[in-house]
Structure formats: C-alpha cells, structure tokens
Specification:
Layout (H helix, E strand, L loop, with lengths): L3 H14 L15 H17 L4 E7 L6 H4 L5 E6 L3 E3 L4 E5 L7 E10 L10 H5 L2 E11 L10 H5 L5 E6 L3 E2 L5 H10 L1 E6 L2 E7 L7 H14 L10 E6 L4 E2 L5 E7 L6 E6 L1
Helix pairs in contact: 1-2
Length: about 270
C-alpha cells in the first residue's frame, strides 16, 4: 500500500529539485483514484503549512470520449494556489520556467465563481448564473514522470500537473449576456501561436463540449467525492482547448479566440 503522506513528500521534492520519478501507477501495488486524492489533500496541507492559500481548482481529462478507456466516470481536478495564479496586466505577462522540469502550455477558459455552485445542474445557463466572470487563461503544466506518460490517477497525485495559471482580462457574466454565452462557449475557436505562427487550434467543444458544462460537471464530481463545493471568489481553469505544447525560455506564446469576445493573451517565457 502506498502511504499518501510519503508519496506527497516525494512528489513535492521531485518538483522542487527538478528530478524525475516513476509514475505511482507504474509501481508495485499501483495507485487508485481514492488514494490519489488523499495524496492531493496532503499536498494541499503541506502548501498551507508553508503559508500558501488555495484559490481554486483546475480540471483534467475533460474529454468524455476518453473516459471509458481511462476508466473514469467523470473528470479529475486539483487545487491551485495564491502563488501560482496571477493576472496578466494588459493581457501580457512574462513567465519564468527555469525551475520547471518539462513545462507545457495550454489555453483554457477561466471562471471566477460568484455564488456557491450546486452539484447536479447540467444546464449551462444555470451554471453561468453562479459565475462572476470568464477569462482566457494560460495553464502551465509540468510533469516529473518520464516522457509525460501519465494516467488520471498520476495527474491527481502530482498537483494536477499545475505549475501556474496566467489569467487574462475578465468578461463579466450577467443575466443579459448569459443566453449568448451559452451558445458562444460551445462554439468559439482558439488559435495557439508560438512566435507568431499558429501551432495548435481548438474550440470550446474540447472542454466537455463547453467550458460551462465542464464547470457543472466539476461541481458534480466534487460532490460525488464529498468534497467542498466551489465557493464565491474561487477560480476554475476548465480544461485545455488545444493540445498542450512544450515550452522553452525565449518564446512568445499567444492565444487568440474567435466568437467569444475575449482579447488575445500573450506570455513570454524566460529562464
């Protein structure tokens, strides 16, 4: 049996020291999802003991078509922190990645919660009624497992691969624009650019057919595990819209959306 506290310390040390470790699911005895969430909870406890605060959640494996293959019945998640989430002034930011092991970048829709989000509501309009604002964001993920070979269980047990989140300018959500947003979130497209050239394209459909539906599914998934419901002022990064891309120092990355009304977001990487 894997000890959650011991594994949490090992994972935290691997990230801190930029050291590769074997994925927990490949070890003798393996690791199940329940134990992985116990590891995640221990990582949260350790970060809070360092003086950090949790500020929201990030989503993983928001592709329902893959759930049967991955032996999932819903998506997975992990916490984000006050020192890993920041807002981009003027929708531009600089990101130091020198301490990361093998970072990648993902464009995502970020929600800021207005009122506690109930579980079990699959109506995107009802979900958006609990949202204060939406933004375009860059989720920075990092993996200490060899060759980025992971399962959802490994994801949960390693901070959800969360290394950072850069949040762009918010669009306020109101009763007046919710009907339009329901349609737009399911249909908008995004182009991910590296040094001015498009390297990946995606759409809102890649996040569980709509980031709003993804947010509702997250609320239900948390409830199934007896977790704390999403609360006011928390943020949620709702799953990648394109295939994640490896990043290196000295690059300029931009995400440009069409059909949603959010401004482009740019980040420049440094060592």
């Amino acid at each position: 049996m894997i000890d959650p506290a011991a594994l949490a310390r090992e994972i935290a040390a691997a990230y801190a020291n930029k050291q590769s470790v074997s994925a927990p699911t490949t070890r003798a005895g393996g690791l199940d999802l329940t134990t992985a969430y116990a590891v995640e909870a221990e990582l949260v406890r350790m970060r809070r003991a360092e003086g950090r605060k949790t500020v929201g959640l990030k989503v993983g494996f928001a592709n329902k078509a893959m759930w049967r293959v991955l032996k999932l019945d819903t998506l997975v998640w992990a916490h984000m922190y006050d020192d890993t989430v920041r807002h981009a002034a003027g929708n531009e930011a600089t990101l130091s990645i020198g301490k990361m092991f093998a970072p990648k970048i993902e464009p995502e829709i970020v929600f800021t919660i207005k009122t506690p989000l109930p579980a079990g509501d699959a109506d995107p309009a009802a979900v958006l009624d609990a949202v204060e604002s939406i933004s375009l964001g860059f989720e920075i993920i990092d993996c200490v497992y060899p060759d980025w070979k992971i399962t959802p269980v490994d994801f949960v047990a390693s901070y959800g691969l969360h290394a950072g989140l850069i949040v762009g300018a918010p669009m306020l959500v109101s009763a007046d624009n919710i009907p339009a947003l329901v349609d737009q979130l399911a249909a908008f497209t995004v182009a991910l650019q590296k040094n001015g050239e498009v390297v990946a394209q995606g759409s809102g459909k890649n996040s569980l057919k709509s980031p709003a539906l993804c947010l509702g599914e997250l609320a239900s998934a948390i409830a199934k595990r007896g977790g704390t419901p999403l609360a006011a002022s928390e943020c949620v990064s709702s799953g990648t819209l394109t295939e994640a891309q490896l990043i290196a120092p000295g690059e300029t990355w931009s995400a440009v959306v069409d059909g949603l009304g959010l401004p482009a977001l740019t980040v420049r990487t440094t060592a």
